[in-house]
Design brief:
Blueprint lengths: L4 H16 L6 E11 L1 E8 L2 E21 L6 E5 L12 H13 L4 E6 L10 H17 L4 H11 L3 H4 L5 E5 L3 E4 L8 E6 L6 H11 L8 H11 L2 H6 L2 E2 L2 H7 L1 H11 L5 E4 L6 E5 L2 H10 L5 E6 L22 H7 L2
Parallel strand pairs: 2-9, 4-5
Antiparallel strand pairs: 1-3, 2-3, 3-5, 3-6, 6-7, 8-11, 8-12, 10-11
Helix pairs in contact: 2-3, 2-4, 6-9, 9-10
Length: 338
């Protein structure tokens, strides 16, 4: 068969151009990933708020958030799983995110559906992840390019929502509004996660911390942990785990101490508590060791094996001429040249 080289390229180029045109998007689904605070140091107070220095990472435990356009300025939310159905709408961070996004950018409301997999009240940032997922989805739905404007909404919703907009490894400072991404980490970290049924209120944990530590501020572990992470020193990273809220959370909820001590019992590289509790985690060299520890855990907490992850929607996408289904294959190019 003979090919007219110019005609082939012209036709395929036209089809590729049509394929590349933006299509109207009616709904978006996003994965809202949980986070772990590998360190959480309280380094001061300002304006009635505690100032933090924390090394955080996203892990591959996530809520599925679906956001669909609707006519009018009102938004709605439906929750599924993990007892989230009992959350009053006025206290739902995902709904608050949609309402503030609509107000700020003058766009219509949305219908939100959240399928929960992240345990509630565990310090894994599930509420913040859902809010960030809604903000990201609405950016896509309505074509909003104002990233700083969206980040400003995130800061209003919670201390770690701005971080959740991008996730991955990062240093989170201040009230959570100062984020320093750590992008050069390629190897996965593997964790055993133990989540008691009983949660811990973040507000109660900070108040208890104030009772136990009138003016004793922490400093140094986050820097040590980041240096170990960047150098590939996994054992050094585990040795730097520290959470200043742990004594307070353990005092409020005994299952926190049980979970952390259970995690430590498997001789991991390091163990600790995430956020204000109640979930504990243990770092192991491999996935297989995590699975081994999970198989031997006999406690009452829900056990998961998770790994660090960088959300795909934020990875840099390389543009390739092979990305379009209408692009010429190498074989066709060779034939066109015959």
């Amino acid at each position: 068969m003979c090919y007219n080289k110019n005609e082939v390229f012209k036709r395929r180029a036209n089809l590729a151009a049509l394929w590349g045109k933006k299509k109207s998007v009616n709904y978006v689904k996003v994965k809202a990933y949980a986070k772990l605070n590998l360190t959480l140091e309280i380094v001061g107070r300002s304006g009635g708020f505690h100032l933090l220095d924390s090394l955080v990472t996203s892990v591959d435990l996530f809520d599925l958030v679906k956001v669909k356009k609707r006519k009018g300025k009102f938004s709605s939310v439906v929750m599924h799983g993990m007892g989230s159905e009992e959350i009053p709408p006025e206290q739902n961070n995902a709904l608050k995110a949609a309402e503030r996004f609509s107000q700020k950018f003058g766009v219509d409301g949305v219908e939100i559906t959240v399928f929960k997999n992240i345990p509630l009240g565990g310090g894994l940032g599930g509420s913040s992840a859902d809010a960030a997922g809604v903000l990201s989805a609405m950016q896509t739905l309505f074509g909003i390019q104002d990233d700083e404007g969206v980040a400003a909404i995130a800061d209003e919703l919670g201390s770690d929502v701005r971080y959740m907009l991008k996730g991955g490894f990062a240093r989170m400072c201040g009230r959570g509004e100062r984020i320093e991404p750590i992008e050069e980490i390629k190897d996965k970290l593997w964790f055993l996660l133990l989540c008691p049924k009983e949660g811990v209120s973040a507000g109660a944990a900070y108040r208890k911390y104030d009772e136990l530590n009138a003016s004793d501020f922490s400093l140094g572990n986050t820097t040590r942990a980041i240096n170990a992470l960047k150098s590939g020193d996994t054992a050094g990273l585990g040795g730097a785990f520290k959470n200043d809220l742990y004594p307070a959370a353990a005092a409020l909820q005994p299952t926190v101490k049980e979970a952390v001590e259970s995690a430590e019992s498997f001789s991991p590289l390091g163990a600790g508590m995430t956020g204000s509790g109640s979930c504990a985690f243990a770092l192991f060299e491999t996935k297989e060791l995590c699975e081994w520890a999970k198989s031997r855990y006999k406690g009452k907490a829900q056990a998961y094996v998770v790994s660090s992850v960088t959300p795909k929607r934020w990875k840099k996408q390389e543009k390739s001429r092979w990305g379009s289904p209408f692009a010429l294959t190498r074989e066709e190019i060779e034939k066109a040249g015959e």
